[in-house]
Amino acid sequence: MDWVTTSWRWVQALRQDWWWKWVESTETLTIGQSQYNLSADFHITDARYVKIDDVVIWDSEVGESDQVTLGVQEVADWRRKWDFQSHDNQRPTEVAILEDGKLGIGGKADKAYSLRLRYYQQNADFASNTDIPGIPEEYHELIVYRALQLWAGSEQNQIKFRHYEIEVQNWQKLLEADPRIGTGFGNASGTLG
After folding, report:
1. pTM for this one?
2. How far is 139 from 85, CA to CA, in rounded Å?
3. pLDDT in tens, 75-88
4. Is 113 exposed, middle or buried (0-12, 13-18, 19+ CB in 10 A)?
């Protein structure tokens, strides 16, 4: 049994809003396209949620001073407004997470705008023994002590199990007391399919 991988999964699953799991990505919109698959179009393969109320667009030629947050639309409203009729390409003003998990942008871009979105990463396993967990380095001990606790449990060594359990609780409290908790990008507001 891989106690370290199991421990890493456990740490990631403790909360659904870890600040260190939020990632920002800037992509370029395609002229005339209104629906984007995050993995195929934006090369984002580990998104669990998109923070839909914080999708920002700007004209790359003007620069970041042109940044505007896109308005959020419910899927039915987005489809009614942007998907059922022909529209001239224009500067997009609205965004929705569609039923199939795609990002719907309305209207279709009239130029290659930059688009920044924030997303919450899916829980990840280690691919090799040299992988480094996404949790901040100062909290790696939580993973180690949780792995030792699992090992002690498998050996039915209650004294060591209890010792490691206390260490896990202490490290977990430290991590959850980190002042960055709740100051990251906030809760997810769009779910991907």
Report:
1. 0.74
2. 52
3. 999 999 998 878 89
4. buried
